[in-house]
Amino acid sequence: MILLIKLVLVYTLTYKKVLSNKIIPFHYNLHFTITPDLFEGTTEIYFKTKKKTKKVILNAEDLDIQSINLFVSDKVFQGTFFSEKNTVDIFFHNPLLTDEEYKLEIKYRSKYSEGMDGIYKSNYNDNTLYSTHFEPTYARKAFPCFDQPDMKARFRIKITAPPDNIVLSNSSLNKKDGNTYLFNDTEPMSTYLVAFVVGKLESIQMTTKNNKIPITIYADKSDIKNGRLAINVAKYALDFFGKLF
């Protein structure tokens, strides 16, 4: 019984570390570059701190971190860091102050997940899809973050995809520059809700009669015809309940 309790405590402390509530993130800029064999990322986290500290602990798992820089006002500081099982501890020479806003920039790269978590690849009718599944605590396998549901923030997501691919994410598209898609900021949300898909997709569109709400169905080219039923039902349901309520 004593051994069992010790094992449970070790597992909890090592793999389920609760992050400090002294750090308050409020905005992320995420840039993913998708290539056939791996993805590269740049994460910018804007945050404040409730208390002076020289250390920031983030969640990160299976990420090959290349550099970490801290920006405040017009100054840049490099952080020293070491990684554990699912966290990265970052240390700074000078303490972070409570009356400042900071930007933490982390550059990294990683292979795709071998399971259906984090960012993973799947093949469908000779096409490759790059998809995400971050619930409950797999966002840390895609980008360094405060991977707890109570630490909500806005997200600005940018994705550079292989040629001839479509990219979808949480919010509407702001602009497309070549193969790079920039999406509008999300509402404040938890990290596990961040999502995107990259692939050679086709779409069909309709608009509701009452409130002119656009509806779009995306699918592989071979299956797009099967989306006609789904989009008709969605249009009918939105029109029906729009009148009812």
TrEMBL record:
Example GO molecular function term? zinc ion binding
User: Aminopeptidase N-like N-terminal domain location, by residue?
Assistant: 25-193
Query: What broad taxonomic lineage does this protein's source fall under?
Result: Eukaryota, Fungi, Fungi incertae sedis, Microsporidia, Nosematidae
What organism does the UniProt record list as the source?
Vairimorpha ceranae (strain BRL01) (Microsporidian parasite)
Which Gene Ontology BP annotations are present? peptide catabolic process; proteolysis
Q: Which GO terms describe its cellular component?
A: cytoplasm; extracellular space; membrane
User: From which domain of life does this come?
Assistant: Eukaryota
Which chain regions cross the lipid bilayer?
none
Protein name (record)? Aminopeptidase N-like N-terminal domain-containing protein
What are the alphabetically sorted keywords of the record? Signal
InterPro entries assigned to the protein according to its UniProt record, in alphabetical order: Aminopeptidase_N-like_N, Aminopeptidase_N-like_N_sf, Peptidase_M1, Peptidase_M1_aminopeptidases
Q: SUPFAM superfamilies in the record, alphabetically?
A: Leukotriene A4 hydrolase N-terminal domain (SSF63737)
| Signal sequence range | 1-20
Listed Pfam families: Peptidase_M1_N
